[in-house]
Design goal:
79 residues; alpha+beta; 2 helices; 28% strand
Length: 79
């Protein structure tokens, strides 16, 4: 079982890396780029974790370590 965790900067928090990427894309001729938000994708192999426990465990991982809840949001899916 694999969990995919998406961590992104909150909308009301400045994203300097996203701004830099947006500027670079515009300078390369992609004038249609209105903005970019940069985040991270974390894949976690949950091994033999029972499916009924997996969602709660991954949520705990996100809250305790993977996301800084002051400035980041997260979502995840489990396959």
């Amino acid at each position: 079982m694999i969990a995919r965790v998406h961590v992104t900067i909150k909308r009301d928090v400045l994203d300097p890396q996203g701004e830099a990427v947006a500027g670079a894309l515009r300078s390369l001729g992609y004038a249609e780029v209105a903005g970019v938000r940069v985040g991270k994708l974390i894949e976690i192999d949950l091994g033999a974790t029972p499916p009924e426990d997996a969602r709660e465990r991954v949520d705990q991982m996100c809250r305790k370590l993977l996301a800084n809840l002051v400035i980041e949001d997260y979502r995840f899916e489990i396959d």
